[in-house]
Amino acid sequence: xxxxxxxxxxxxxxxxxxxxxxxxxxxxxxxxxxxxxxxxxxxxxxxxxxxxxxxxxxxxxxxxxxxxxxxxxxxxxxxxxxxxxxxxxxxxxxxxxxxxxxxxxxxxxxxxxxxxxxxxxxxxxxxxxxxxxxxxxxxxxxxxxxxxxxxxxxxxxxxxxxxxxxxxxxxxxxxxxxxxxxxxxxxxxxxxxxxxxxxxxxxxxxxxxxxxxxxxxxxxxxxxxxxxxxxxxxxxxxxxxxxxxxxxxxxxx
Amino acid sequence: xxxxxxxxxxxxxxxxxxxxxxxxxxxxxxxxxxxxxxxxxxxxxxxxxxxxxxxxxxxxxxxxxxxxxxxxxxxxxxxxxxxxxxxxxxxxxxxxxxxxxxxxxxxxxxxxxxxxxxxxxxxxxxxxxxxxxxxxxxxxxxxxxxxxxxxxxxxxxxxxxxxxxxxxxxxxxxxxxxxxxxxxxxxxxxxxxxxxxxxxxxxxxxxxxxxxxxxxxxxxxxxxxxxxxxxxxxxxxxxxxxxxxxxxxxxxx
Lengths: 253, 253
What we know:
homodimer, Rossmann fold, 8-stranded mixed sheet, alpha/beta
């Protein structure tokens, strides 16, 4: 039996115990893709967020995850322990995670203090500015940020790119990446999709624009290393074309 | 028939078209409170977030809202147009909304440039720093923030305090406010609850700590202007004591 790993939904990065940065994604597309493969007798492992839609077929292994770190750990373990014929990575993974809270008033004050110093050394100015900013920021904790705090900025750091690990851990799997942009030109979308494909050694990339997803429609293009190979108008279409090219790729016609 | 307005769930403040800052809140407590009043023949209007749990009783008017601005507009309109005997405001309303994205590298550079200027006027240093920060920030749009952006901070601004408007618009309604903190001492919780009560002219405040909500338990205290008047151990308890004091307050025994 063929094994396939499908990820779906969006990650949630905690800011404090009651707030998070969420990537909107219902998991509906991922669940349809999983169901399409399940219908053709594939064995599905389905990683999704707490609130994501899950597939309707039985015998699908559902693994719920919360933030990018837990997704990375889960995928790393699975890709080391099991062999997957294909990985369809639809999940909207947060590019950023909250790192610290900067008090803007404190930052302005500590930078202003620097400016009032006489005979400032010109050699390490940017380090001094960095350090002044650092002094005005506090790490995030599981306490709730006070509602009285005014003028704050949330310092974000980049999360590790999980998609880049997939082919490193399983060079023979067929990898389908997803690129979602919002309100861009078709040229820009195809370029971003192509870059994702090359950088992460994807076999296929499904590229779509948030502006073209509404009222039951979901326009998308499927790319391989030569460019656009197919198009879709609905989520059902997307599931169909992904199934078609993946099953051709693994020799099931 | 008595009218009551219940708010439930948490608001979502958009960062861009695919991400938001969410306040976690399922709406379960609010839905139980609404059901408790509905059972006693109250007419319920229920304002909640897109994903919140809704009450099980029929004939409850459900109004879904997204962010703080839409909540404020909806409540303002309702409180002007209709009379409510009571408002139970359980909703987790975001204290902050994203305003702009600051590039940390650009900010460090433009502040460093200030420091390299000779004969800097000492009168308006903090204005100059503010302006350098402003130049390094860009407004949020419905475009998706590029996943390549590194070292950014999200500038947050405070949202208007909706609870403060309720008694201004309907001085005779019985207002129940909610204070949720996380991992604080009991003294700090009671103080924060008392402050919320006084500042917003609440009749009652339900104060609870996130650390005391788990495994079906939900510890909370109910305050009025004289201090603690009752306690609860579960969501069902909370719904009961709120019903008890509110119905006494409006003369139904």
